[in-house]
Hints:
The chain is mostly helical. It has helices at about 5-30, 55-65, 75-95, 100-125, 130-145, 150-170, 175-190, 195-215, 225-250. Helix 1 (about 5-30) runs antiparallel to helix 3 (about 75-95) and helix 4 (about 100-125) packs across helix 9 (about 225-250). The radius of gyration is 19 Å and the shape is globular. The protein starts with a helix and ends with a helix.
Amino acid sequence: MDLNVIILSIVYFISGLLIGSFLNILIYKIPRKLPIFKPYAICYYCMQQVSVINNFPILSYLIRRSKCGKCNLKIPVQNIVVEVLTALIYLLVFLTFRTSVNTAIGIILTSILVVVSFIDWKFMIIPNVIVLPFTIVGLGLSIIKNLAKWWLPLAFSAGACVFMLIIHLIYPKGMGMGDVKLSLMLGAFLVKNVIVGLFIGFLIGSITGLSLIIAKKKNLKQFIPFGPFISIGGLIAFFVGDYILRWYVGFI
């Protein structure tokens, strides 16, 4: 492997760790409607202001064994998962696309989907303050990427939204409006590959839902947040959506 690639891989991984710590703050504060920066670093249990080190889970673990200096409780394991997951996906984005518009799209999309997934899984909401502004960002990046077909991102974004809206109207308990808006944003970033993303999301969500019902963890009347599954499908589509679409077209 080229030395420059190795160096940049390390840079992207470390950047993912650093940004992952910020994503943890967004995941905690946005659904609770807390100020993001005042104070910036707080304990996720006692909500007291703490050292900035506490917001870097891995570093905090090495220095303080992940314990809050105020209440002495450990930082949630989820925070470490978010930090490491973000770093690994950032690294994968770089190794797949190197330095390109796709890299910028991948970094932004990854960050949004990580935040959306963890918020939706815990609170069963997908905040408008995240998906709506970044729908515009996604449209802008996708249009810049292919100016000759500037209308495609608009068409696929609107199409994905309408498709999910129809499902929501038919079965509102199974598909929330947050999922509809998330599909709007995914269409803006993924363009035609949003078809793959939604299909994979439905597939993974269905398998997970059936597995939970069989294991008696959920029943048919309980709501399972769908945002994380759409997000997983969206990430898979971002990396290999083109290959899947080509395979499918060739298959039929």
